[in-house]
Amino acid sequence: MSTTTSVSYTGEFLDLPAELADPAQARYVVIPVPYDGTSTWRKGADRGPAALLEASGAVEWYDIETQLEACQAGILTAPALEVAQLSPEAMSELVQQRVAEELAARRIPVVLGGEHSVSIGAIRAAAEAAEGRLGVLQFDAHADTRESYHGSPCNHACIMARAREVADIVQVGIRAIDAEERAGLDPERVFWAHEVMQAPDRSWMDRAVALLPQEVYITVDLDGFDPAVVPATGTPEPGGLDWYTVNELCRRVLASGRTLVGFDVNELLPLEGHHASNFLAAKLVYRIMSMAESQR
Ligand SMILES: [Mn+2]
Q1: Are 153 and 147 in contact (CB under 8 A)?
Q2: pLDDT at site 124
Q3: Distance of CA 241 to CAs 33, 172, 199, 233, 248, Å?
Q4: Do strands 190-192 and 167-174 pair parallel, antiparallel, or not at all (unpaired)?
Q5: Contact 163, 131 (CB under 8 A)
Q6: Contact 122, 134 (CB under 8 A)
Q7: N or C: which end of the chain has fewer CB within 10 A?
Q8: Domain that holds residue 102
Q9: 231-258, pLDDT tens digit by residue?
Q10: pLDDT class for 10, splitting at 50, 70, 90?
Q11: Distance 156 CA to ligand 1 centre (A)
Q12: CATH code at 97?
């Protein structure tokens, strides 16, 4: 029933020819992590990476805002990690190991979820490889700061609790938490959706950027977007971010001179007959690469 053509897609990001996906040269490596072990409501995020990759074939190589073709820097697409049967802890360790290898090879890892628990290993690897303190910029409807959930500290609802153990976090678009999480949040580091989407100007973005150290990892839970923008996600929450807000904050972070060490886009739950969300996710991956390349 959940089988669509996109599930079995195993092509390259952007459908790049071999010369733009040369392991000896490529600056980026896309790592699909089709994991859906801990999601709590609608299942199917394990189909996200294949749907995103399939949609990426329709993304233009030329980026209008940055006036460049980021793919000229080279983008590898790694085989999907085999994680379906793993516990969240074992999955996180495998992702951490793979991301650490790519960082050691001086590539920028781009993890495709899967549910949001795929980020834990990537953030840990980035924090270990960082020269100084790592910053993690999170776009999400949920704070994900539960210490443990359904028996696991590596549940999707805990990923920012794990991130703040090793990094300085900034949380944007948040609009669903429980009372216990509220008590543990650092109000300076949380940019609530209802505040930023109704703010008279974008000065809040300057405050967000200033909270990040030199080296930054970006984690995009697609439910950070409004469900009208991205309906294809497992736990949609009304009142979310729009395309230009997410793009502009990423642009400002990178234009500030900060270093992008890696990023992920997760929680895409492909819907039959709806491909706009898959395409947005693919385009966002490429836009972040384009913004990073424009600072080189
Ligand atoms: Mn979320």
Answers
A1: yes
A2: 98
A3: 25, 9, 12, 14, 11
A4: parallel
A5: no
A6: no
A7: N
A8: 5-293
A9: 999 999 999 999 999 999 999 999 999 9
A10: low
A11: 8
A12: 3.40.800.10
**Is 60 exceeded by the pLDDT of residue 6?**
no
CA of 21 to the centre of ligand 1 (A): 31
Q: How remote is the CA of residue 65 from the centroid of ligand 1, in Å?
A: 28
Neighbours of 159 (CB within 10 A): 32
240 alpha carbon – ligand 1 mean position (Å) = 11
Q: How many domains does the chain have?
A: 1
Task: Copy the structure tokens of residue 173.
Answer: 């678009």
pTM of the shown model:
0.96
How many residues are recorded in the chain? 296
Least reliable range by pLDDT among 10-19, 98-107, 170-179, 259-268: 10-19
DSSP string, the chain: ----GGGG----GGG--GGGS-TTT-SEEEEEE---SS--SS--GGGHHHHHHHHHTTS-SEETTTTEEGGGG-EEEPPPP--TTS-HHHHHHHHHHHHHHHHHTT-EEEEEESSGGGHHHHHHHHHHH-SS-EEEEEE-SB----S-BTTBTTSGGGHHHHHHHHEEEEEEEE-B--HHHHHHS-GGGEEEHHHHTT-SSSHHHHHHHHTS-SEEEEEEEGGGB-TTT---SSS--SS-B-HHHHHHHHHHHHHTT-EEEEEEEE----BTTB-HHHHHHHHHHHHHHHHHHTT-
The residue whose two tokens read 């039959």 is 272
Distance CA 269, CA 102 (A): 26
Residue 41: its pLDDT value, please? Answer: 79
